[in-house]
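2 proteins. here.
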Amino acid sequence: PNFPNQYPASKLCIWEIEAHPQYRLPGLPSCERLIFEFGVKPSRALTAFQAGKLALLGQLTPEEVQALRRDTELGASYHEIPGFTTYMMLPNTRQGLFADRDRRRALLASVRAMEGLDLAIGSLGVPAHGLIPPGLPGYVEQPLPPFTADLDLLHKQRIKVALHPIYREAFAALWHALQVRFEHIGVELEVVADTVEGLLDAAQRGTADLFALRWLADYPDADIFASIFHRDLNPLLPLFDHAELRRLVETARQESDADQRHALYREIERLAHDEGFVVPLFYEQLYRFVRPEIRNMGLRFRSPEVAYEQLALAS
């Protein structure tokens, strides 16, 4: 689980975990206890890290990451690997403005034509061409073929948006760039929710037209991403009702041949693109800064992303 997402950004939660005396791996964990602080604003976390009050640091803004990497002491402690997280926007296809396929395609086309997206992301991600991130079956290396879309269908429309809070925090610059882009084509974005709880509630009640979120994989498999389109596998976000996509998701889950699975997930990506079901933004890079006195730092492609059991203080 992604524990910090369960708490409102305005609240601080502290967890202290002591080393288990009968841990399953001999010689681990390497430290006596871990203390996690959730809900700390990025700017305050950065100050605490620089002062030596935090040992590990993540979830900064792109600008803060670049500045800290230039630090002669702390910048050398930067660790990074590609992550299995996609940032995207999903339209509510079951009702409202984006029940119309042509409007969904206009939405996708308007974002694909956007300039400066990479600048808003910085080094924390790479622009996404689809739903499934690199390294997984079905990943789309190049943008799928463009289609003809009438952007006038969005002109003078007010789009109700439910935001993941990270678009207000670490990726506030990205959200601002999206707002500017939509204003340029005559679209007003009205934020109706900006907490995880509010986003999920809006999805259940159908009170938003568009959902700006991120989708994380707890383990590296494309099924985690494709299941977004299956209402039984993804009851928290009931935004889609497409029989062919559900069939493809179910078939891919049962397929054992790697090439066949790849082809099935590619077909899911193609169909979702043609229907305008996903507006991909970027694939996130996993990173952490670590204090120089911390040893054995390592990142991995699963949750938890940090190998906490290996962390130790320099003697």
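next one coming up
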Amino acid sequence: MPDRLHHDAHQQSGDDLLQLADDPDSSQAPPRARIFIVTGSGIDAERCARPLAYTLLEEIERVVRSTIDDEGQTPSVAASVCADLWAVGMRWPMGAALIAIGPPSQNAVSAFLANRLPSVSTESRRYAVLMEPMLDGPHVCCYGEDAATTADAVRCFRDRHLPGFVESVLRTQ
């Protein structure tokens, strides 16, 4: 059985990324849901946040593979890692779930979401996990005061909130 979760390399153009997220292999049905993991575009974000994003993408794949929908099937979810400049330039893919990784000073999507989403986890003001699961396309923002605490925020999201987030994505899309 072909892998039901599709992901791509970050080098894709905006239109190509949306098309790839929709259907990278024309023999497969379009995905039921989309998730974009958004990192900053600067050197620090590329060095620190992007590896976290790909690790989180693997965790999303694992959660989706363990999920069974109402028809007894594993739902098809298209997950992609992309840069904040792409997401902002595309005016965010409407209806897609977003996970922003990195501090607002390094990620434009984090900067936008940081004052708009409620906090679901914090650790002594060293990191924050912000999430609104009820939006049309749930949104999450994970960041810390440095690379290590941003990694802590992503681990916290993965360990405490990822299964519920995936359920919310599947319910709202």
